Amino acid sequence: MIVETEEKNGKRSHCSREGKIQSDCVIWFHNSFPAYRGLLFHVPNENDRSDSNPIQGAMRRSLGVVAGVSDLILLVPRKGHGALLIEMKDEKGKQRPAQQDWQKSVESQGYVYRICRSLDQFKEIINEYLCLE
């Protein structure tokens, strides 16, 4: 059973519904595309919120943390695109403004950005991007 574990400050737990969907997607990809193992990865950006400790936030930014970065990145070029960027959301999840801004920024650079809400949708996104359908 998956328990919603949304903290008071809005940070997502990997035990959340979103985290479970993401885990299922990564496992499916790992087993379905062994040649691309290691090229689909999670960007641990969950702690990029501005309401956190300002010193810790400055330290994270100095290390390259960028607000709004997608949850998963697939570094496999296709159809003139350098990568596929996937933001995981559950059925009720909405993008934060920083995520919307980052989406616009990367799409303007020619990357493919998708929002994914289920394992089935993830399979469709991956198959479409990798030109398997």
Protein architecture, described:
The protein has helices spanning 17-32, 54-62, 97-108, 119-129; strands at 40-42, 72-74, 84-88, 112-116. The chain has 133 residues and is an alpha+beta fold. The protein has a single domain (17-129), classed as Trna Endonuclease, Chain: A, domain 1. It has a 4-stranded mixed sheet with strand order 1-2-3-4. Strand 3, helix 3 (97-108) and strand 4 form a beta-alpha-beta unit. The longest helix is centred in the N-terminal third of the chain and has 16 residues, at 17-32. The termini are far apart.
Chart the SSEs and their pairings.
Elements: H1 17-32, E1 40-42, H2 54-62, E2 72-74, E3 84-88, H3 97-108, E4 112-116, H4 119-129
Parallel strand pairs: 3-4
Antiparallel strand pairs: 1-2, 2-3
CATH class categorisation: Alpha Beta
Number of distinct helices: 4
Cα-based radius of gyration, to the nearest Å: 15 Å
Assembly context of the chains: single chain
The largest β sheet comes out as: 4 strands, mixed
Structural class, by secondary structure, is: alpha+beta
Looking at the overall shape, the CATH architecture is: 3-Layer(aba) Sandwich
Low-confidence stretches: 1-14
Strand order of the largest sheet: 1-2-3-4
* Number of beta-strand segments: 4
Helicity level: 25-40%
Shape: globular
- The chain-level mean pLDDT equals 86
CATH topology: Trna Endonuclease, Chain: A, domain 1
Spatial separation of the terminal alpha carbons: 33 Å
Succession of helices and strands: HEHEEHEH
As for the number of domains, it is 1
% residues in beta strands: 5-15%
